Amino acid sequence: MRKDIKVRKVTAIEDIYSVQKLEKRIWGMEPIPVHQTITAVKNGGLIVGAFLENRLIGYSYSFAGYSEGEVYLCSHMLAVDEEFQMMGIGKLLKEEQLRLAREMGYRLIVWTFDPLESRNAYLNTSKLYGVCYDYIVNCYGSMDDGLNKGLPTDRFQVAWWIDSPRVLEKWQPDLTYSRPFQIHLSEDSHPVVLLPETNDWLEAEAIEVPVPKQIQLMKKENPQFAYEWRMETRNIFQQLCDEGFALVDVCRTEEPVQYYRFCKRSIIPLQN
């Protein structure tokens, strides 16, 4: 089926209304007004849609950003219809977003994701070669949609330097990763992290941090564990970012956790 899916830039108003309908169905909240998305697209923004015949089944929505002298593309939303998830459509949307952003003159694309959603982390760092060195506490405040309800909306910001050796050459560090955090299983088989007694682990050149594979299931079955993972990883990730580390990769395992890989930001080739 994937070969029948076409990914293209969205500009027609009827397609933008389809984006709005899909957004509301996926996120379960009021969508962005069409007049706003149209204005963004006409002023440096970008919508990319994935279509099966004439049906919109996924999209990404971006608008122009500016900070500290840097113009960039802010990728605000990416979503795929539940029926078509786990088919690589998200990656197709990001690749077309990258191609079009280059044509528009952008060098940097940024977006956020929940640090406990390891599947998103894997796409963003291991597949797309973005990096994360900014951790934002409770980025969007309290949210009541199905994916976000029950936890503070902490976020990693992804920096996707689209013309850098990191992206063009698919650069990953050749380092030995320290794994200072131990895991044990609770009575209901959910992972629990054991923290070291000291911060000596920050002296390593590269570090792996465990994150649950099934945070949404944990939120349903044991909300307290999910909350503890949020707060404990918040502390770990903030320390790593403060010490100049960046998330660059995800080590997938057969365990109930995945391992996020961090190295020093200074060694990553982010710009030509």
Strand content: 25-35%
Oligomer: single chain
Strand order of the largest sheet: 1-2-3-4-5-7-6
The helix count comes to 7
Proportion of residues in helical segments: 25-40%
- Report the principal-axis shape: globular
Rg estimate, integer Å: 19 Å
Number of strands: 12
- The low-confidence runs, each spanning 5 or more residues with pLDDT under 50, are none
Most strands sheet: 7 strands, mixed
Give the averaged pLDDT, no decimals: 94
Report the order of strands and helices: EHHEEEHEHEEHEEEHHEE
Taking the alpha carbons of the first and last residues, their distance comes to 38 Å
Which structural class is indicated by helix and strand composition? alpha+beta
Give an account of the 3D structure.
The structure is a single chain. With 272 residues, the chain is of the alpha+beta class. The protein is 30% helix and 31% strand. The protein has seven helices and twelve strands. Strands 1-2-3-4-5-7-6 form a seven-stranded mixed sheet, sandwiched between helices. The chain has a three-stranded antiparallel sheet with strand order 10-12-11. Strands 8-9 form a two-stranded antiparallel ribbon. A hairpin with a 5-residue loop joins strand 8 and strand 9. The two termini are 38 Å apart. The model has no long low-confidence stretch (mean pLDDT 94).
